[in-house]
Amino acid sequence: MNVREHRIPVSPAVEVTARHHAASPSRQATLVLAHGAGAGQTHPFMVGVATALAAEGIDVVTFNFPYMDAGRRTPDRAPVLEQTWRTVLEHVASGLAPGVRLVAGGKSMGGRIASQVLAADPEHPGVARVSGLVLLGYPLHPPGKPDQPRTAHLASIATPILLVQGTRDAFGTRAEVEPVFTALPTRVDFLFVEGGDHGFAVPRSSGRTSRDVMREVTDRVAGWILG
């Protein structure tokens, strides 16, 4: 696998770092994958997902949000996060051949912001090219605060969705997320990681390793993108 790093300008004063995990050979699909709030694109989870999917023939582009590139711990405000997503999507889409499928996705916050962009701006040149949305641990609500749902925009998404969620995720258990996403007007497919938390870690008593879980997740994502 070949990994190339480059910079993408998102405003006159700000550029973000992106990494292209090139598949060889490519199977005519590209996933743009955004990180969660607490760790950037070089986190082992992000690299592991990108590496596994590239091995399946899917080109993967990851990127940092501006705050992460700047070394800040607090995420940018939603307009900045959303503009970054739109800009990266347009940048990637502009370099794709007509027959290549473009999918957006993200871990936790990265996926939530992607969903907001797809809901709010479906005619944007980059967004309009997206044919699928992969959510890896959707943060339905802050931990311990189910009265603060992040769901108002979801019904406006027309793009098919794959939701991968741990059954004991503090940001939204299976019992919480399944009825919300099942009720959406678009097609939604699920993978529930039994016993998984927000990072898909499972109890030792499950008899499964982190490698087992990662393989389950990436196999499902790859099959959904290529299927």
In short:
This protein is of the alpha/beta class. The protein is built from 7 helices and 8 strands.
Explain what the structure shows.
Strand 1 (2-11) and strand 2 (14-22) form a beta hairpin. The mean pLDDT is 96. It is globular, with a radius of gyration of 16 Å. Helix 1 packs across helix 7 (210-226) and helix 3 packs across helix 4. It contains 7 helices and 8 strands. It has a single domain (2-226), classed as Rossmann fold (3-Layer(aba) Sandwich). It has helices at 44-55, 66-69, 78-94, 109-120, 125-128, 174-182, 210-226; strands at 2-11, 14-22, 29-34, 59-63, 101-107, 130-136, 161-166, 188-193. It is of the alpha/beta class and 227 residues long. The chain has an 8-stranded mixed sheet, with helices on both faces.
